[in-house]
Structure formats: structure tokens, C-alpha cells
Amino acid sequence: MSQYKYLLFDADETLFDFGKTEAMGLANTFAEFGVEPTTEIIDEYHRYNKSLWRALERGEITKTELKKERFKHIIDMFNFKDADPVLMGERYVYHLGQGCYLLDGATEVVKELSKKYSLSIVTNGVAYVQHTRFDASGLKPYFEGLFISDEMGVQKPEKRFFDIVLETLGASKEECLVIGDSLSSDMKGAHNAGMHKCWFNRTGEPANVDFDIEYEIHNIEDLYQIL
Ligand SMILES: [Mg+2]
Question: What is the 123 CA–ligand 1 centroid distance (Å)?
Fold first, then answer.
């Protein structure tokens, strides 16, 4: 038996296949606005969206700005004069909520670990999207907590985010293991909060961080070796 009692899972790209959801969401949104989603447009969206998320994690922009700016950038750059970036952002969030895809092995691992541990989701995702997908996922009965930054007013990697999680669960930081794919939000956040962490390194990239990561896994089933 490990020292942990609480497992704090990131949602996207840790349990949920966000890549698949995102591709479907973008295709449906652009179709509604009569935009042909070329590789150039999709690549530019990904590049710019990623930079906005990093800015959000640094506290430089708000979620509302992110949701609008990522489409405003595409509309301006590719000259789609008639499209409203706020409306496009809203439709995209709607479509994301319709796409619930779990990563391979996620359901089985969650079911198994829920027999021995208290499980929670800790996510920076958009509240509407996370709620609708979590409801549709079939995972809900196995989780004690669903912590969404939008609803907490604070986000990963801020220490306060994890302080609220600890207070709500009645847990100590030593009893928790944070599991996630992101170095900048999940691992950095766990580090800021003084918690142990497990990096779900799905792509085999090097860990370019200035702190220790206790565990690294490449498949979700690898958690059985740790827990
Ligand atoms: Mg993630």
C-alpha cells in the first residue's frame, strides 16, 4: 500500500482524449461559419491557442479573453470579415462539450484505483465543457471531487488551487499524488503546492523543469506499478 490516499487527476490528455474532441469541435465550428478548415488554419490555431494557454497559466490573460482571442486571431489573419470571434468561441465551446472521448485504458484504471483511493479531477478546462463531458463519460461514480479552475477563481499551477482542493477533501498534501500530462500546469502546480507528482509523458519528451518529478509514466496502466 502506498502512502497516498488521494489521487488528483488532470482531465485533458490524461484521462480524456482532448485531441479528438478538439478536432471535432474545430471542424463543426468552422463548418457553421462557412470556413474551410485548411491545414494552415488548423496549425495556426493550435500554435496560437497553445501560446494563449501558457499566458493564462502565467496569469497574464483571463479565460474569457482566451476563448475570444484564439478565434479573433484566426479571423484577422485569414480575413474572415463576417465572423464574430465571441460567437465563434461560444459555438466552439458548445461543440467541445458534445465530444466525450476517453483515452485508452482510462476507464479501467479509474475503476480499479477507485477501490483503494479517493479520486478527484483537477482541471483548468472550460467549466461547461468539463461538466458535460464528465457527465457523459461514465466516470462520475468513481470520483469524489471535480475541481474546475473556472469555478474556483484560481488555476493550476497556482498553489492556491491545490490549497482549495486539500481543504475541500480534508486531505494533507503528503496524502496526495497529482497525475497529469502538463509540465507547466500539473507538475509545476503540484511542485508549488509541495505535493508528489506523476508525469504522464505520452510523447516521450524530456522533462525541462527545474524541480524533481517523483514518477514518470508512459501509459496510464503504469500507475499500477506505483500505487
Ligand atoms: Mg492535460
Answer: 8
At which residue does the C-alpha cell 522533462 appear?
A: 207
Q: Say how far apart CA 208 and CA 194 lie, in whole Å.
A: 19
Domains in the chain: ranges and CATH:
6-16+102-226 (3.40.50.1000), 19-97 (1.10.150.240)
pLDDT in tens, 21-55: 999 999 999 999 999 999 999 999 999 999 999 99
Owner of C-alpha cell 478548415: 37
Helix (H) or strand (E) holding 217: strand 215-217
Which residues touch 128 (CB under 8 Å, ≥6 apart)? 93, 94, 97
* Rounded distance from Cα 10 to ligand 1 centre (Å): 6
- 121 vs 123: CA distance, rounded Å: 6
Torsion of CA 129, 56, 91, 23, to 10 degrees: -80
Residues identified as active-site: 10
DSSP 124-170: -S-HHHHHHHHHHHS-GGG-SEEEEHHHHT--TT-HHHHHHHHHHHT
d(CA 124, ligand 1 centre) in Å: 8
Cα separation, 216 vs 227, in Å, equals 13
pLDDT in tens, 56-69: 999 999 989 999 99
Task: Using the mean position of ligand 1's atoms as its centre, give its distance from the Cα of residue 172 in Å.
Answer: 23
0.85 exceeded by pTM: yes
Question: Which chain residues have CB less than 5 Å from ligand 1, an ion?
Answer: 10, 12-13, 181-182
- The gap between the terminal CA atoms of the chain, to the nearest Å, is 7
